[in-house]
Amino acid sequence: MSADHIHTHHADIAKRLKRAEGHLRTVVTMIEGGRSCLDIAQQLHAVEKAIGQAKRTLIQDHLDHCLEETVGALPRDKRGPIDEFKEITKYL
């Protein structure tokens, strides 16, 4: 695979990561400003969720495109393991 490929959800992933970046900047400002641990923890949770969702979206997007491209068209009765693998990755 080439290093410069773009998939359907890459723009969504970039948007999520920019949101996480904003949350992270806010966390630093909050820590420097002496905000409460509860407020900081809530912002850190938002960062964590945004990054986690970006990672899941990237993995799903990769599987939907690259794995399918590699495996090619398979008869329905042979798709079981691939479809199950794609489904289980949602729990990463």
UniProtKB/TrEMBL annotation:
Transmembrane segments: none annotated. It comes from the Bacteria. Belongs to the FrmR/RcnR family. This is Metal-sensing transcriptional repressor. It comes from Terrihabitans rhizophilus.
